[in-house]
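Example record

One chain of 464 residues, shown exactly as stored in the release files.
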Amino acid sequence: MILRKYISLLIIVLLPFGGVIAQNKQLPNIVLLLADDLGYRDLSCYGSTQVNTPNLDNLAAKGMRFTDFYAGSAVCSPSRAALMTGRSSVRAGIYSWIHTSHKMHLVEKEFTTAELLKQAGYATAHIGKWHLGYDLEESSGPGPNPGDQGFDHWIATGNNAIPSHHNPENFVRNGLALGEVKGYSSHFLADEAIGWLEDRPKDKPFFINLWFHEPHQKVAAPDGYLEKHQDTNLPAYYGSIENMDAAIGRVLTELEKQGLTSETLVVFMSDNGSYRGSNGSNGELTKGKTTLWEGGIRVPGIFSWPGVIAEGTIENQPAGVVDIFPTIKEIVEGEIDKNIVIDGSSLLPVFKEGKFERKKPLYWFYPPSRPVAVIRKDSWNLIADPEIEIPRGNMFQEEYIGIIKETKLQNFRLYNLRNDPKQSKDVSSENPEVFEGMKKEMIKLHEEIVKEAIDWRDFSWPNN
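Predicted structure tokens for this chain:
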């Protein structure tokens, strides 16, 4: 199965749009930084009064900071699937966060950012949390692991750092378990990234997928950060964010040391909003993680690319992690199978010209949440509930897929997020044309995506 995939990938690389691109065009290095459960207001450049994040603040000052940037879902795994594929998480088969009891995982046939970049001649590395499947060790099962999804080198945890960010014991490097590693997860990942940057093939552009565990529970931070925040009720939470910022600073310093800053696109995002809820890490936005209200999906989004993105740019147009794949695809002029439906849109025109035309609205469908479905278009936000009650518990059961595929949507509500970021007033009756138009778009997208989504009840290995 894996052999067939890589034979196909080899054929693609030999086509004119493959490895030849890397030889004929100066392509940027790409570093994707992803935080875990970081809220919209959890960085000082996004208005935090508790946290000081000088390295990320400096990255934003040298590039573009989005005010309306969105995760791929309200929880980890589906958001990561959207980031890796440019597809709605449910279209990619990931309905909720993945538990070890699930068959659900990012299937091998999904074409990832890493595979797109490998075909363009990049060296690739995944470093950090994975949570798109648990079969990481060589002897653990059929996978796929990051190596099967396009990464030359990888080190990962299936889910969270265990027992916490301090001295984690569940990292696996290229299929081999490491046991306990000393120190804090964010700096261990920085060490790995710096080491890989030093040893990487120097004749290729590179891609690093650097996915941190902070500030997902169980949080941990060095004593200095804990003492700094001892007067708050969340010293380890705030400390873990500042510790992650320091680790990111070390990686950015290494890029500068090697003379790579001017030729590297660096992106920082979060996989969903904070579990702290409203009036905290998510600012004034309603609710938080596990919900499709703004607090659950609106997150920081920072892009730095010297010479392409103007310094100090504040961008108000809605965008999200689902746009990363199509953006990279346009940057490297890559091609994909014409039958693959991409839901995101390239942000390259925003970087170069400040203009942007989204081909379809941003869309989310997360079965345990109410609202269960959301689309964002310009300043408008439309939400809906399911006609058939889908269980709302935190633990997704694959037996729910039957009613998920059957249910229609109801109870549509419209908000103008420019005027009402708290989503406190339904303005559908005041804007009937906008409401009806977005309602039709949502229904069409929902039916199309749910139809394509994998029914894990029928899945069996090696049906990958």
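Notes: Confidence is low (pLDDT under 50) at residues 1-24.
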